[in-house]
Amino acid sequence: MKDFQGNMLCLDRADINTDEIIPARYLTEISKSALKPHLLEDLVLDGFNPDTDLKDVRVIVSRGNFGCGSSREHAPWALEVNGINVVIAPSFARIFRQNMFNCGMMAIELPDDQVQSLFELGAGKKARLCIDVENKTLLATNDSGKELKIEFPISEFDKTLVKTGGWVEFADKNY
Amino acid sequence: MGKTIAEKIFDTHLVDKPFGDVSVLRLDRVFCHEITTPIAVQDLVARGKDRVFDADKIKAVIDHVSPAKDSKTAMQGKILRDWALRHGIKDFFDIGQNGVCHALFPEKGFVRPGFTIIMGDSHTCTHGAFGAFAAGVGTTDLEVGILKGVCTFKEPETFKIDITGTLRPGVYAKDVILEVIRQISVNGATNMVIEFTGPVVDAMGMDQRMTLSNMAVEAGATSGICLPDMTTVQYLWPFIKDEFQTPEDALAQYSQFCSDPDAVYAKKKTIDVSSLEPMVTFGFKPDNVKPVSQMTGTPVDQVYIGSCTNGRLEDLREAAAEVAGKKINPGVRAIVSPATPDIFSAALDEGLIKIFMDAGFCVTNPTCGACLGMSNGVLAEGEVAASTTNRNFNGRMGKGGMVHLMSPATAAATAVHGVITNSDRFKS
Ligand code: SF4
Prior knowledge:
The complex is a heterodimer. By secondary structure, chain A is an alpha/beta fold. Helix content of chain A is 30%, strand content 22%. Chain A is built from seven helices and seven strands. Chain A has a seven-stranded mixed β-sheet, with helices on both faces. In chain A, strand 2, helix 3 (74-80) and strand 3 form a beta-alpha-beta unit. In chain B, helix 3 (71-86) links the parallel strand 4 (58-61) and strand 5. The N and C termini of chain B lie far apart (45 Å). In chain B, helix 2 packs across helix 3. Chain B has helices at residues 5-13, 37-46, 71-86, 101-107, 139-148, 173-184, 199-203, 206-214, 230-240, 247-255, 307-310, 313-323, 341-349, 352-359, 408-417, and strands at residues 14-16, 22-26, 29-33, 58-61, 92-93, 116-119, 133-136, 150-154, 157-164, 192-197, 223-226, 267-272, 279-281, 289-291, 302-305, 333-336, 362-363, 384-387, 402-405. In chain B, the strands form five sheets. A five-stranded parallel β-sheet of chain B has the order 5-4-3-6-7, covered by helices on one side. Chain B has a five-stranded parallel β-sheet with strand order 17-16-15-18-19, with helices on one face. Chain B has a four-stranded parallel β-sheet with strand order 11-10-9-12. Helices cover 33% and strands 19% of the residues of chain B. Chain B has 15 helices and 19 strands. Chain B folds into two domains: 1-276, Aconitase, domain 3; 282-417, Aconitase, domain 3 (2-Layer Sandwich). Chains A and B meet through helix 4, helix 6 and helix 7 of A and helix 2, helix 3 and helix 5 of B. Iron/sulfur cluster (SF4) binds next to helix 4 and helix 11 of chain B.
């Protein structure tokens, strides 16, 4: 199982698409690690600089319809090779969400108000997030000591994928 | 209780429901191209699982960057080519035979009503035009599809979109789907299947239905399905004539998949298109859509006619009719890319290629090329394209470039005028 804790980065925009997560011009790469320097390179967002702001980030919190656009799995891979195994948002594009769990990563869907409180907790502060897969809870803390504990939904299937490290191993064994 | 076409396809393909909410479906087709498949193949090899579930059900093409533009894309082609050879995948289309996957595979007769199809490509929904459940998937799903011939999906909810009225001359399936996306937004159908019904869809040929289904994913849909009818059967007839005595028999067989009158839908919407004008996108999201008349005069640098959305013969005919006997504006450059070799060939026979060349278009070989900003017409920073493709995301056709999506007729008119404009074919 992958590691699901660490510094949180808030990206305050809905509909962040896979072209923004990893631009199409890097699709010719045939290794995952080559994607590392290009994560979110094309995302234009006030106050966000992909060159400096992604350092040591482990969790991304964003708005609705995250991961829309192309089906490329390069998007979760670009996150994975940067050590980001969790994205939290009110909703995800179907393929992106499935890709995340297929890779043994997590796309956690929370209601708007809970995402909003995570944004508030992270606003202008350094914030950390820690996920307990077994108990379906996440704990967010910021450097002024504020804490937020949230229970999140995850299906048994997705949980199994997260715990077994992905769909290829599971399918080859079971079908 | 009645069922939708998607539910019926799910029922007939169900292998397992391991945790209640996910269905593992048996796949009839796994389509592959050289951008997403090599990395899946490499991973299978690394896991010691370099196998395929059924070489006859896997179809592969090099289409995105073709011919290869550099060593990296050459390597992607090579990995796919070697893999197809090693596993005896007969339907592998290399340079000379290759075309844009979602135009090529239907043309080869690989799709049937009631089929389940996956591909590592988001516009796989195009094949829903034939009454199939066809969905884009990521690389891991593709790997498992290749290896085991199965894929997981949530039970589909269906959004039924009834297109009523009659289209005015010069208004096409592209304008209809842009209007649909404008109305329901980029996530209006997330996790749902869109079922396109109504007299306007019934009257459309397969080329137009594919345009419609192609962009279902731009509204978030898993698949965009048109119900099989005589138009579907006629298109497929050359490929199925040995299986059935008459087209009516084929239709009777395929109709079993059609949604029941009392099927339950998650959402329903009726859109009357009688007063619809040609539409165009204006921002970086496919639901930023306006009538062309409100964008008239917007300058563009490049016009692109092609792609899995609008690179088919009917599209080239409409565009050629618009530019016949004219020259493109000196301020723009224009590219037309017939989506498959057969389309190219037919366009040659019909004199369309000559019309485009005389007008000043660059005619390219069949490939995705500029559509995803990888070759054959990438934009420079700050440049603007009028394009018949399906995505206007920031930088889609090249970093810092902007794309306005429109129909082939509107794109052709824009090439002639150098600014966005309605085609002469539209009578307002
Ligand atoms: S033409 Fe464009 S949208 Fe269609 S498959 Fe090729 S890259 Fe994708």
